[in-house]
Structure formats: C-alpha cells, structure tokens
Specification:
The structure is a single chain. The protein has two helices and nine strands; from the N terminus they run E-E-E-H-E-E-E-E-E-E-H. By secondary structure, the protein is mostly beta strands. It has two domains: 86 residues, Roll (Chitinase A, domain 3), CATH 3.10.50.40; 45 residues, Thrombin, subunit H. Strand 7 and strand 8 form a beta hairpin. Bound molecules: zinc ion (ZN). Zinc ion binds next to loops.
Length: 168
C-alpha cells in the first residue's frame, strides 16, 4: 500500500492543488484560495506546461513557487493585435464580455481560438492571443492530494471530480 502522502506527481495522476497566480507586477490574476481547489490530470496538458513540469515528482503537502516564462505558459504575444468583428457574427443570446473565448475557422478549416478584448454596440474586438500571452506567470502552489486517474479519466484526458465518478 502507498499512502497519498508518498504518491508522487507523475503522468496518470489526478492532482488536487491550491494556487495563486500573480503577474510580474505582483497583481493577483487568479486564485483558488477562496474556492474549490483545482484538479487536473498530470501529463494531460490541462495546465500550462511550465507549471505541469515543475510539479512532477512532488507529493501532497508540498508548497512551491514557480515562475513560468511565456513560452511555457500562454505563449508569446503575436500578430497585429485585436481586429474588429461585426456583433452579429456572435450568438444573439450570449452576453459578450472581454476575456471570453470563441472558436473561429482558420484558413484550413481548423478551429482557431480567439479572445474578446472589447465589446462595442456594433463591433467586437477579438485577438488571437490568450489574455495572458506574453506574461511571465508566478504561481504559488500547494499540492493537496494525488490519486491515480480512472480509465475513463485517462480516455477523456481530464479529471471527473474528487472521486473520479462525476460524469458530464
Ligand atoms: Zn470527461
């Protein structure tokens, strides 16, 4: 028998963690501290590569501070910046807000994510960059728990909740 305390973070583990994400100015961008901890499948690409790599080999109770460069985070900021799209190309029944992600069709018919940066009456500005592209990310992370992923979770490539039974 192995206890949770001894089980190391590795591919195929569902990891539960608490985290606080700050940018280089020290501004808190996101935190799990006042809500539910984050669950992810290690090796599944659920979280940014720089954080996933840093967590490898850690055990429950470990506390670490990880600095992630854009290349291992949300990528470098590329392209000419936001471009306008008519409001009527978006669904009528959705309240558009900056930061929302939509999928658009690329030149080869592939799905390409875009993020809203500004919403006007007739025009919406969208950008191909993730809102955190170009940012160096500072994660303060505590590993709460690890457990092996279920077969179903491995197939789906993501966790299904603390016990692995939740379905969606
Ligand atoms: Zn699933």
């Amino acid at each position: 028998m192995t206890t949770n305390q001894q089980r190391r973070v590795e591919d195929g583990q569902i990891v539960t963690l608490h985290y606080t994400l700050t940018n280089s100015e020290g501004e808190v961008l996101d935190s799990s501290e006042d809500s539910e901890p984050l669950l992810y499948l290690h090796g599944g690409g659920n979280i940014v590569p720089g954080l996933e790599n840093a967590l490898t080999g850690h055990v429950a109770g470990d506390h670490l501070q990880v600095t992630v460069k854009p290349a291992d985070g949300y990528g470098d900021r590329v392209g000419p910046g936001p471009r306008p799209v008519p409001r009527n190309e978006f669904p009528d029944d959705v309240d558009l807000e900056p930061g929302m992600q939509f999928l658009t069709e690329g030149a080869g018919g592939e799905a390409v994510p875009v993020w809203i940066t500004d919403v006007g009456a007739d025009t919406v500005q969208v950008d191909f960059n993730h809102p955190l592209a170009g940012e160096t990310l500072h994660f303060d992370v505590t590993v709460v728990e690890t457990r092996p992923a279920t077969e179903e979770e491995m197939e789906h490539g993501h966790p299904h909740g603390p016990e692995g039974h939740h379905h969606h």
